Amino acid sequence: MKAAVVTSFTEPLVIEERRVPEPGPGQVLVRIEASGLCHTDIHAAHGDWPVKPTPPFVPGHEGVGIVEALGAGVTHRDLGDRVAVPWLGHACGRCDYCVSGWETLCPDQQRTGYSVDGGFAEYVVADADFAMPVPDGVSPHDAAPLTCAGVTTYKAVKVAHIRPSERVAVFGIGGLGHLAVQYARLVGGTVIAVDVEVDKLELALELGADHVVNARETDPVAAIEELGGADVAIVLAVLPSVFEQAFAALRPGGRLVCVGLPPETDGPMSLPIFPTVLKGISVIGSIVGTRQDLAEVFDLHARGRTRVVAETRKLDEVNDAIEDVLSGRATARIVFQL
Ligand code: NAD
Ligand code: ZN
Ligand code: ZN
């Protein structure tokens, strides 16, 4: 099978011919139809984060495809089912996090495309319990971005406890941001979209943003203050300085939801203590979403409540696609068609 492989953190990905993997006990073999390129895959390929994957590995955690073989003991998935293979590839199912609805925090988890091979390939093996059914009416092309960008921003909106009439600033209208705008609107928020690319801001308006701020031309903190300040700021951009802007744009009682994961070498964000305390600010980290969150994301999409914006590429074009995301040229998400 064809696979895009990270062989070193300093070299482009290599397209390799590999043996089709065999599903072990409790696993399924999935023939990938569509596979989204998340900025996380780029961080993985560059070894950006404190905990690094071990090359060679296959990235990709927005893989969607058809179950073609069942490992021993798999009784709840059928051949021919369409499933998504998300970042949370496995969690223990027994720890206090797993049993209390926080499987995303399980200390004993596998991360697809990071600690185990992912969806930038014609086939992937996945834990049958974590390969999530894709409902009829959701195409593989749409299901792929929903599998990470969708579930992650849906969860970020959930943990922010947005009330109708609150102002929600979304910093970064890329793969994640174009869906964050829609979920924030669905819960009644007034959305302020912040980016540095004109095209992305136009897309945000099309998707329902109430206001846009071009942070290349305008100070976003001043612009958001002029609108009355943000009750919630969701940060999806990949720069610590943007987290600091988002913090500064909050009104008293505001919530800073941190989702973007800039490279470790870019340093920490620094938050001033005095306004944090006096303004009663909450700082919330949010990591992907649970299987239930993903089921809800698919259900909303099947009912026509969200729109996925993505351009299709071939897997052989993976390195050009990465360049396009890094330079801000990509429209929302890039999806590889297998
Ligand atoms: P992306 O590259 O598609 O989007 C980033 C956006 O930020 C782009 O639209 C870019 O133009 C914009 N941007 C750049 N500079 C900016 C600035 N100064 N102000 C405002 N916007 C700016 O990336 P993505 O796939 O949406 O991922 C975003 C981040 O989220 C990455 O760090 C990724 O690793 C992380 N991520 C986190 C989780 C999680 O569970 N916490 C899940 C998925 C992705
Ligand atoms: Zn992702
Ligand atoms: Zn667990």
TrEMBL record:
EC main class here is oxidoreductase
UniProt entry tagged with the keyword Metal-binding: yes
Q: Where are the transmembrane segments?
A: none
GO MF, one annotated term? alcohol dehydrogenase (NAD+) activity
SMART domains xrefs: PKS_ER (SM00829)
Keywords (alphabetical) are: Metal-binding, Oxidoreductase, Zinc
Using the record, list the residue span of the signal peptide; answer none if the entry has no such feature: none
Query: Under which EC number(s) is this enzyme classified?
Result: 1.1.1.1
- Does the record's keyword annotation contain Oxidoreductase? yes
Catalysed conversion reaction:
a primary alcohol + NAD(+) = an aldehyde + NADH + H(+); a secondary alcohol + NAD(+) = a ketone + NADH + H(+)
Q: Name one Pfam family in it.
A: ADH_zinc_N
- Highest taxon, organism lineage: Bacteria
Known cofactor(s): Zn(2+)
Q: Describe the location of the Enoyl reductase (ER) domain by residue ranges.
A: 8-336
Q: Which PANTHER family match?
A: ALCOHOL DEHYDROGENASE 1-RELATED, VACUOLAR PROTEIN SORTING-ASSOCIATED PROTEIN 11
NCBIfam families with a match to the protein in the record: PRK09422.1
Tell me which family the UniProt entry assigns to this protein. Belongs to the zinc-containing alcohol dehydrogenase family.
This protein is called what? alcohol dehydrogenase
Native species of this protein?
Nocardioides mangrovi
